[in-house]
Amino acid sequence: MAMISHTTITLNGTSHPQESAVSITQLLETTGLAGKPVVVELNEQAVFPRDYPHTQVEPGARVEIVALAAGG
């Protein structure tokens, strides 16, 4: 198993630089997903959108973000 640096997070399976804790809201802003319909999982736990502003993503965390798209 590969070691994960504690100055990164794993974002959708890819190493993403992050020196300090940020809220999920801040992470969505930096990834261009703020205001878009998404589902966020932090360390294998789903996070409700109402909790994004005060849920912290620490270096070393695993985050999955799935953008929702309407279809027909």
In CATH terms, what is the architecture? Roll
> How much strand content do the residues show?
35-45%
Q: How confident is the prediction overall: mean pLDDT?
A: 91
SS field, number of helical segments: 1
Biggest sheet strand line-up: 2-1-7-4-5
Instruction: Give the termini distance in whole angstroms.
Output: 41 Å
Give the helix/strand class.
Answer: mainly beta
Task: Briefly say what this structure is.
By secondary structure, the chain is mostly beta strands.
Outline the secondary-structure elements.
Layout: E1 8-11, E2 14-17, E3 22-23, H1 24-30, E4 38-42, E5 45-47, E6 56-57, E7 62-67
Parallel strand pairs: 1-7
Antiparallel strand pairs: 1-2, 3-6, 4-5, 4-7
Note down, in words, how this protein is organized.
With 72 residues, this protein is mostly beta strands. The chain has a single domain (8-12, 22-67), classed as Roll (Ubiquitin-like (UB roll)). The chain has one helix spanning 24-30; strands spanning 8-11, 14-17, 22-23, 38-42, 45-47, 56-57, 62-67. The strands form 2 sheets. A 5-stranded mixed β-sheet has the order 2-1-7-4-5, with no helix packed on it. Strands 3-6 form a two-stranded antiparallel ribbon. Strand 1 (8-11) and strand 2 form a beta hairpin. The longest helix has 7 residues, at 24-30.
